[in-house]
Amino acid sequence: MSVCDSRIIQKLGQIHGLDLPLVAGSDLTVRLFEQVIRPGDRIAIVGGSKELRQALQARYPAVGFTQYLAPMGLRRDAEARRSAAAFIAQARARFTFIAVGSPQQEMVAGAVRSFPEARGMALCIGASLEFITGDQRRAPRILQQLSLEWAYRLASDPGRLWRRYLVEGPRVFRMALRERGRHR
User: Fold this and answer.
1) CA pair distance 138, 150, nearest whole angstrom
2) Which of 180, 169, 159 is nearest to 7 (CA)?
């Protein structure tokens, strides 16, 4: 399943006559921890740091966490993605949170398909766990509502996020224009 967690993509969909309900990944992750995950559940994490897992374990002591510390360069390393996918399949967790950034996390999720024994639900969640632990801060609600969360995140970590938001992200506008041209 794929959900829309971008207000910008949601608005582009509306322009093209598509109703894309917004499911912000960060909000979904918080809700899962607050309302769905139960004591005794096994939770797998792909990505993050040892400190992230320790902070989650301290916050949710009745939950069993397991973690795969993914190497850098997943985007270009098929074997590393396969290893991450194998970890997910072997973890047999109720929920797996893939937190290695886009598009790497979607590539890892895709690699899990080659493991028919994989169970549970996996979610590509980016920095959502870091928001829960307080390692990163989400944009103020008003910026989220104005579709400016990306700008807040860019300003908070420009060295890491400039390419995503200023080079790769704007491609969606060109794609939308091409699509609009096809349907005229």
Assistant:
1) 10
2) 169
